[in-house]
Design goal:
Belongs to the hemerythrin family. One of its GO terms (molecular function) is metal ion binding. It holds the Pfam family Hemerythrin. Keywords: Iron, Metal-binding. Helix 1 packs antiparallel against helix 2, helix 1 packs antiparallel against helix 5 and helix 2 runs antiparallel to helix 3. It is built from 5 helices and no strands. It is an all-alpha fold. The chain has one domain: Up-down Bundle (Four Helix Bundle (Hemerythrin (Met), subunit A)), CATH 1.20.120. Bound molecules: fe (ii) ion. Fe (ii) ion binds next to helix 3 and helix 5.
Length: about 140
Amino acid sequence: MFDFNFNWDGRLTLGIEQIDSQHQAFFQIGRHIEQILLIQCIGVTEQELMNILYDLREYVTYHFYDEETFMKTIHYPHIVQHIAEHESFKNYINSIDYTALCASPYKELTHLRNAIVEWVFEHMVKQDKDIEAYYQRLSS
Ligand SMILES: [Fe+2]
């Protein structure tokens, strides 16, 4: 996986305050994982791994709900496909096995980090930016 360090890039901003701040919170979770990987998971505790999982599960619940509510409010036309992508990522996050994560944190966290980076480039950069494009046309 190429070098990506979860520094927020202003080009990802949608101009929808609540959603933007949630996306930035997601990047913080990514950065947290990245920092643990940088030190090869040395000293990482089960509590810390639990907190990461908790943060991610919470994120896919409240953030997707808010983003989907916003799409409904503006009658976004591609909402069905968008929600399907959310459901798929949510299922992945909810399926992460805590026991396996604690047993092989470096391997499992690397996999998780790669999945999050893929989500950024395949979903946030494309699908979420499309919401912005539609919203801009609506308000112009
Ligand atoms: Fe989305």
